[in-house]
Write a structure and sequence with these properties.
It is a single chain. The chain is mainly alpha-helical. The protein is built from seven helices and four strands. The protein has helices at residues 3-22, 37-40, 44-51, 55-66, 93-109, 123-141, 143-151, and strands at 26-29, 32-35, 70-74, 80-84. Strand 3 and strand 4 (80-84) form a beta hairpin. The longest helix is centred in the N-terminal third of the chain and has 20 residues, at 3-22.
Length: 153
């Protein structure tokens, strides 16, 4: 995994969440707030950016959707294993992409996922690069988010 991509995604994701909170995309969670990603995925500019993506962005989205990032799972034997993120309950392409972005971020922040022998370390960089491209695309396509991200307003 590349430190450059890991650091870039960590910073980009954190600033994006901060900017989303600044423009009101929040939901309460106890006595604090979290980003309302379920509202983000319904934004027309987000849907359009994902549905009409071309080039590198389309390739990044394709990677995330065709080989969803993995998550930890306890199998019937009680052992931890990795399984692909289940996207079957997603109602839109934007929902699927947002779930993948969140999983890539969670895997980065909460540690590498190397429980099963079929995981390839170099794939992590592919996911980091893909998530970074998609996050930047979403920011560029959404004027309010871009302004909050860049200007802190």
């Amino acid at each position: 995994m590349s430190k450059k991509e890991a650091n870039a995604l960590f910073v980009e994701y954190a600033r994006t969440e901060w900017a989303l909170k600044k423009i009101g995309y929040v939901v309460p969670r106890g006595d604090f707030i979290q980003v309302a990603w379920n509202k983000v995925q319904k934004e027309p500019c987000v849907i359009l950016a994902i549905d009409d993506a071309v080039g590198d962005i389309a390739d990044a989205i394709e990677l995330l959707l065709k080989r969803p990032p993995r998550r930890e799972h306890i199998n019937e034997s009680g052992k931890v294993e990795l399984v692909p993120l289940d996207l079957s309950d997603s109602d839109s392409k934007a929902d699927k992409v947002i779930k993948c972005l969140k999983r890539v971020r969670n895997n980065l922040v909460h540690g590498a996922k190397f429980y099963s022998g079929d995981w390839h370390f170099e794939q992590s960089t592919d996911y980091l690069k893909a998530a970074l491209k998609v996050l930047r695309c979403l920011r560029e396509s959404w004027q309010d988010l871009k302004q909050a991200f860049e200007n802190g307003k």
